[in-house]
Specification:
four-stranded antiparallel beta sheet; 41% strand
């Protein structure tokens, strides 16, 4: 005998519909939050631009219960994702560029520090004071600008090679400097809502002047002796205060700012070894030879982290895609030749170290360092005890390169994460593979 299943009550139907709507809203919010962290417009939103301000405009993407707001004003340049009832911030309009503070007392600086009693000091190579800067926006918290990073953070992605601290950008022509005079904020640098205020400042005592304002700055070359960043022949990577896009400028000895690359990139980084620039525009990545005004690579949908050449003068580049598998979050790296031919594509490759005569890669599948020459032949392997590469004063990485000279690489292979654990030393001769022992 067939029994007709009971029909769903009206209340149950309503509850089911509400549950489906709530889940759809949550998924849409998560999707839009990710787009917000990438400074992209919201999906299924209403776009409004208010240009009634006399120092810029404000863009709003109004979604279902929340607003992505982008301030593009001289008085405020930041982004926020807020509930619909949170109104706009509306600070008083500012002139395009503030006036540098003058007429203040400059105390002697016997320590020779770049910051003393709330003032920034600028010196020549003889450590003679050339000028000072008094904070305008941050009380006494301004600093000589350190080299920053973009959303993709390509130069700081690798825990084994990224800088252990933020290093300042050196003086330019002994006349100018980048100053970080960011307004006090609840968030820290790196948070999507944080806004950096960078001034290009002429610090000479007889003629101090703020010449330009940017939303961020990156150095190019790094001087290990002075532990400062410099520019590529006075060319610096800066982010526009108006549209939050990266561009490349040249700063002349007279303080003229020349636009080398327009402010239309989501990312620009400089490769010290090859002197090439790595560009990202509208989500597409390319390698660019500025000296010859030539794009050298095909477009990549994944970030390009590095470019190098081997001993046969063949160029390669490394890409990577952020992945999460279960509880593991990692960058899945790949290597291509500059002409686009694939060289290394092994699933879950979480680390690649490139050298002129070989590459070293690590996958989470076997916890082993693989040494691969450029013919594709595997030459050597080093098993690891664990995979974590992040390291602090409390924790060891899985391995580190302790010494390297003339093709000899000496590795420390740690037994455990805590600093109390010992390590094994392994020497590898990458020029004469038969003599590794």
């Amino acid at each position: 005998m067939y029994n007709e299943p009971p029909k769903m009550s009206q209340q149950k139907k309503i509850e089911l519909i509400l549950l489906i709507v709530a889940m759809a809203w949550l998924l849409l919010f998560i999707f839009n939050y990710v787009r917000f962290t990438q400074s992209k417009s919201l999906f299924l939103s209403f776009h409004v631009t208010d240009d009634s301000y006399d120092d810029g405009y404000v863009e709003e993407y109004i979604g279902l219960g929340y607003i992505y707001r982008r301030y593009q004003r001289n008085a405020i340049a930041r982004e926020e994702l807020v509930p619909f009832w949170v109104g706009r911030e509306n600070p008083e309009s500012e002139d395009a560029l503030p006036k540098a503070a003058t007429g203040y007392e400059v105390p002697d600086n016997p320590t020779g520090h770049s910051k003393f009693r709330g003032l920034l000091y600028f010196f020549n190579i003889k450590r003679e004071t050339l000028g000072t800067y008094k904070c305008l926006n941050s009380g006494t918290d301004c600093e000589v600008a350190t080299s920053g990073y973009d959303y993709y953070n390509t130069l700081n992605k690798d825990p084994l090679t990224r800088p252990s601290e933020s290093y300042p950008i050196s003086n330019i022509h002994e006349t100018f400097a980048f100053v970080d005079d960011s307004y006090p904020q609840e968030t820290n640098y790196g948070d999507p809502s944080y806004t950096r205020t960078i001034y290009l400042y002429r610090f000479l005592e007889e003629d101090p002047e703020i010449i330009a304002r940017f939303a961020d700055v990156k150095g190019s070359t790094f001087d290990e002796n002075t532990e400062t960043y410099g520019g590529d022949n006075s060319k610096y990577i800066v982010k526009s205060y108006e549209n939050n896009k990266w561009g490349l400028i040249n700063i002349t000895e007279k303080g003229t700012i020349e636009e080398v690359l327009p402010f239309e990139y989501e990312s620009i980084s400089y490769d010290i070894d090859t002197k090439y620039y790595i560009l990202c525009k509208e989500g597409k990545w390319t390698i660019y030879d500025l000296n010859n005004d030539k794009v050298l690579s095909n477009e990549s949908d994944d970030p390009i982290y590095d470019v190098w050449r081997n001993t046969n003068i063949t160029y390669y580049y490394k890409t990577g895609r952020d992945r999460t598998v279960g509880n593991d979050s990692f960058v899945d790296y790949k290597i291509y030749r500059l002409d686009g031919k694939e060289f290394l594509n092994i699933d879950r490759t979480i680390e690649i170290i490139e050298r002129e005569n070989c590459i070293i890669y690590l996958t989470s599948a076997d916890k082993t360092l693989h040494f691969l020459d450029y013919s594709g032949e595997e030459r050597y392997k080093i098993p690891l005890k664990f995979l974590e590469l992040e390291h602090t004063y409390l924790n060891n990485p899985a391995f580190e390169i302790d010494y390297e000279l003339n093709g000899i690489m000496v590795f420390k292979i740690y037994e455990g994460r805590e600093k109390s654990y010992s390590y094994e030393t392994v020497s590898v001769n990458t020029l004469h593979w038969d003599y590794n022992e």
